[in-house]
Amino acid sequence: MEIVTDDMPFLVDSVAMELNRHGLVIHLPIHPVIVVRRDEAGGLVEVLPPDSSDGISESYLHFEVDRQSEPEVLDRLRAEVERVLGDVRAACDDWGAMREQVQKILEEFDKQPPPVDEAELAEARALLEWIDNHHFTFIGYRAYDLVNENGEDMLRPIPGTGLGILRQQTKPASGSFAKLPPEARRLARERHVLILTKANSHSTVHRPSYLDYIGVKRFDEQGEVVGERRFLGLYTSAAYNRNPRDIPVLRRKVAKVLERVGLPRYSHDWKSLLNILETFPRDELFQISDDQLFATAMGILRLEERRRVRLFMWHDDYGRFVSALVYVPRDRYTTSVRRGIEEVLAEAFPGASFDFQVWLSESVLARLHFIIRMPPGQMPSYDAKELEAKLAMVTRSWNDELHSLLLELHGEEEGNALFGKYGESFPAAYLDDFPARNAVYDIQRMEDLGERGGLNMNLYRPLEATGELLRFKLFFAERPLPLSDAVPMLEDMGVQVVEERPYELHPAGHGPVWIHDFGV
User: Fold this and answer.
1) What's the rounded Cα separation, in Å, for the pair 441 and 190?
2) Measuring CA to CA, how many Å separate 336 from each of 233, 328, 342, 384, 397?
3) Which of 35, 177, 252, 393 is geometrically suited to a Cys-Cys bond with 48, CB 3.0 to 4.6 A?
4) CA neighbor of 515 nearest in space, from 469, 466, 460
5) How many angstroms from the chain centroid is the CA of residue 375?
6) Within the chain, how many helices (H) and strands (E) appear?
7) CA-to-CA distance for 189 and 153, rounded, in angstroms?
8) Cα separation, 360 vs 334, whole angstroms
């Protein structure tokens, strides 16, 4: 794919993102910027030195991707990339105009302050100044009037206000607002200045994230909400890398939680809670309510590094998505565990789409952050405690089950000692072939090897066995038993040996033990 266009920010990122969305592997990207002079018809006249100020800076993009030969695929790809290039150009061309809208709003705050709490207004002003200071990638803007038609509130676009990707006015009313349930639409009338959330669509510019949505409400002279100024874009890296206590709105949320909990400043729990808030998923920190943040942060604090599974859930005010934080012991976390968690959540939220992030630190717990997006108006009811119990089951490992069974059978002290000796000694093949309950009885027989001269045995019938099939286990210390010794003796007893599976174990602090499992 080759593109020649005016040089603009985000070109390479946005085109590569679209190619990846089509499942194409990029084998070679080349993207020099060349200064040229063209005639009125667009024909190339001259290539100029890179530092020349007389010509046009053009970006020449060359992407080599997986081979494609179907005309339909190529036509669709061309159309989608051209759409992305159009979005990039619209966002870049209107960048200054969108920032001017921020300044106009700040001027309005001075002339006619909204009828809200002074502290809230101060934070709203600070956030707008902060995003204007290169902390927000502006991609779209539009102003709306809040009107009531046939007893229902509607957001109607104001003609001529669209900028960036919202230039084109295609609908008489905001489609995303119209799809909200009535109780969510009523929130538009509440006397709060800012609406901070995520849009329903992915960005086609710069990063493949869901667009960040910053709404600023408009008030009339009576203090009633009459409209909204909507900015769409992406927070820059500073929003994710800086301490939340340095970011407007977030700093107020953090301070309110710390003040509400009333812990002694710089105490162990205070510092632990502060760390929880500072490492909280940043997108969620912008959107979550104060009460939800307090309840979730306190629940995480009470977890206190205990190796257990915990689930914290909340949904956005507009009923579009559910956020789920899942904590699992770090040594238990694997890709298969994550898939098991997602299967449980998918069963509880049919028809949802999922995004997830994994955060690993020096903590004994791994944190999985799921965003569960539901189709409009289809948010089901859910029981977080019931889901947490199911997650505890799907994240429970073979070793966890073995540990629990040893404690149940032998008590805490002896059970822990046996687990310390045998817990990590079973090979992967044994874990695939036997449940943990079988291992409990095999451990008993391996413990008796010293009294039995290094040999022990077990004849049993598996629960799933049919007909005359039996299993016969031989336990040997130090060395494996040669099949040439074992098979003749078994056949002399009148059985036919069908198969043999050997397992080599290395109990902690002891020599190897071999288990030979015969099918007879």
Assistant:
1) 65
2) 34, 13, 10, 22, 11
3) 35
4) 460
5) 18
6) 18, 19
7) 9
8) 12
Measure the CA–CA gap between 248 and 119, rounded to whole angstroms.
Answer: 11
- The CA distance from 287 to 293, in Å, is 10
Cβ–Cβ under 8 Å, residues 481 and 442 = no
Is the separation of the CB atoms in 127 and 146 below 8 Å?
A: no
Written as six digits, the tokens of 121 are 């207004």
Collapsing DSSP to helix, strand or coil, 211 comes out as strand
Paired with 46 in beta bridges are 37
Structure tokens at 436: 């943990």
Q: Which residues contact 332 (CB under 8 A, 6 or more apart)?
A: 366, 395, 397, 400
Q: What is the pLDDT along the chain (520 residues), one digit of tens a residue?
A: 999 999 999 999 999 999 999 999 999 999 999 999 999 999 999 999 998 888 999 999 999 999 999 999 999 999 999 999 999 999 999 999 999 999 999 999 999 999 999 999 999 999 999 999 999 999 999 999 998 887 788 889 999 999 999 998 667 666 667 666 666 677 888 899 999 999 888 999 999 999 999 999 999 988 899 999 999 999 999 899 999 999 999 999 999 999 999 999 999 999 999 999 999 999 999 999 999 999 999 999 999 778 889 999 998 888 889 999 999 999 889 998 999 999 999 999 999 999 999 999 988 999 999 999 988 778 899 999 999 999 999 998 899 899 999 999 999 999 999 999 999 999 999 999 999 999 999 999 999 998 888 889 999 888 777 777 899 999 998 788 888 888 898 899 888 999 999 999 999 988 899 999 999 9
Distance between CA atoms of 308 and 312, rounded to whole angstroms?
13
Contact 257, 290 (CB under 8 A): yes
Mention every residue, 6+ apart, whose C-beta is less than 8 A from residue 204.
14, 17, 18, 83, 84, 87, 88, 165
**Burial per residue of 85-95, b for 16 or more beta-carbon CB atoms within 10 angstroms, e otherwise:** bebbbbbbebb
Q: Is 321 in contact with 372 (CB distance < 8 Å)?
A: yes
Residues 6+ apart with CB under 8 A from 293: 253, 257, 277, 280, 285
- Collapsing DSSP to helix, strand or coil, 272 comes out as helix
| Distance from the Cα of residue 488 to its chain's centroid | 58
CA 134 to chain centroid: 26
Neighbouring-strand partners of residue 335: none
Query: Which amino acid is it at 366?
Result: A
Total count of residues recorded for the chain: 520
Q: From the centroid of its chain, how far is CA 78?
A: 30
Angle made by CA atoms 338, 416, 462, in degrees to the nearest 5:
70
* Distance in angstroms (rounded) separating the CA atoms of residues 158 and 154: 12
